[in-house]
Amino acid sequence: MSEYRKPAFERMEASLLACPKCKRAVKPRKRLLLVLPEGDKYLYLCPQCGSTCGDTIETPLRPNR
Ligand SMILES: [Zn+2]
User: Fold this and answer.
1) For residue 37, what are the domain limits?
2) Whose C-alpha in 14, 17, 19, 39 is 20 to 30 A from the C-alpha of 48?
3) Measured in angstroms, how far is the CA atom of residue 15 from the centroid of ligand 1?
4) C-alpha 21 – ligand 1 centre gap (Å)
5) Contact 26, 48 (CB under 8 A)
6) pLDDT per residue over 16-43, tens digit each?
């Protein structure tokens, strides 16, 4: 197995994402898109061309009561 596999979701900020338009890795801007019941949905936007490089849903940590 030569491919290095990461866990599907990591609890970290994306530092670099591949932009489909610029065809290179960019440091994306994070923009809040939607507030969903299950969490806040963010878009990662390319700072060069504004293309969407990816998205993420951040689930809030609900305190148990
Ligand atoms: Zn771009």
Assistant:
1) 29-60
2) 39
3) 15
4) 5
5) yes
6) 999 999 999 999 999 999 999 999 999 9
